Amino acid sequence: MTADRAVPTDAVRVTPGPVCLMPRDTFTGRPPALPVTAVVERRDDDGRWSPEKSARVVTTPTGARLMPSLAVPAGRPPGGEHGVCRMRVRLVSPYLLDAEHPDGVEFDAPASGVPAVTPVLLLPLPAYPFPPETRLLGGRVVVRRSVMPRSAAGPPPGAPVVGALVTAGARDDPGHIPPVGEPWTDFAATARDGAFRLPLRGPGSRVAAGAVADADTEWFTVTVTGPPGRGGPPVTVHLPAQDITATGFVIEVP
How many Å apart are CA 86 and CA 45, to the nearest integer? Predict the structure, then answer.
């Protein structure tokens, strides 16, 4: 067997383009095995984004998404300064969400030099096929209901918050004893209706000695961070293990 034939068929030998995405499923810690589609778009002169069907996306054996050829298509005048066009790539999946880049990763094309490598953390959406034994907290993230009038431009109270980051870990404060071992964090993202399913794979904390509470109860901390561009600080709530089965758990954010 020659050296060329020994190369895996999916190890396409190309010159990388001006963008390389390295997606990682935060639940498995590995490149996503679930379906993820890379959508490449080009910004028109009027500022609108349109699909760029001529852009070929290559998935390497390590799960990286490379765009090896992003030159201006034949017959189309180059846009932007010095013929550079503004483009973006979005990773779309019914099971995973890139909450850090809700509008995609933008870049200029054509470009020269070494391509920028962008790590992309994909968070589980409610449709994610978790293993049956996974402990899950189900709920929704909505806009906080307040007695103060909201701006007419903002979302109404009770509206779902889409694309929020939801994290969980063992409760960590002076009144609780964290579990033995390395600290852990699990992740999830909210869907269009604000719903999330958050895995809780690590143990919770226990109440410190002398506290008036059930010493055997596990305690967790759940933090919600709004999507990029949305104002308001993160919201943190504490809950005991018996509340994890509540599918109607609601967290309100500013």
Answer: 10
Question: Residue 127: what pLDDT?
Answer: 97
Q: What is the number of other CB atoms lying within 10 angstroms of the CB of residue 236?
A: 13
Using an 8 Å Cβ cutoff, are 112 and 134 in contact? no
Whether 102 and 230 have beta carbons less than 8 Å apart is answered as no
At 197-231, the pLDDT tens digits run: 999 999 999 887 655 556 678 899 999 998 887 76
CB 217 within 8 A of CB 206: yes
d(CA 200, CA 34): 20
Note every long-range contact of 179-184, with CB atoms under 8 Å and residues 24 or more positions apart, other chains counting.
179/203, 179/204, 179/205, 179/206
165-170 and 186-189 beta bridge pairing: antiparallel
148-203 pLDDT per residue, tens: 555 556 667 788 999 999 999 999 888 888 888 889 999 999 999 999 999 999 99
Please tell me the distance from the alpha carbon of residue 124 to that of residue 35, in angstroms, as a whole number. 12
Contacts of residue 147, defined as CB under 8 A and 6 or more positions apart, other chains included, come to none
How do 136-143 and 85-92 pair as beta strands? unpaired
H/E stretch holding 8: none
SS3 state at 22: strand
Q: How far apart are CA 224 and CA 236, in angstroms?
A: 6
Q: Which 8-state DSSP code applies to residue 208?
A: P
The pTM of the full predicted model, rounded to 2 decimals, is: 0.81
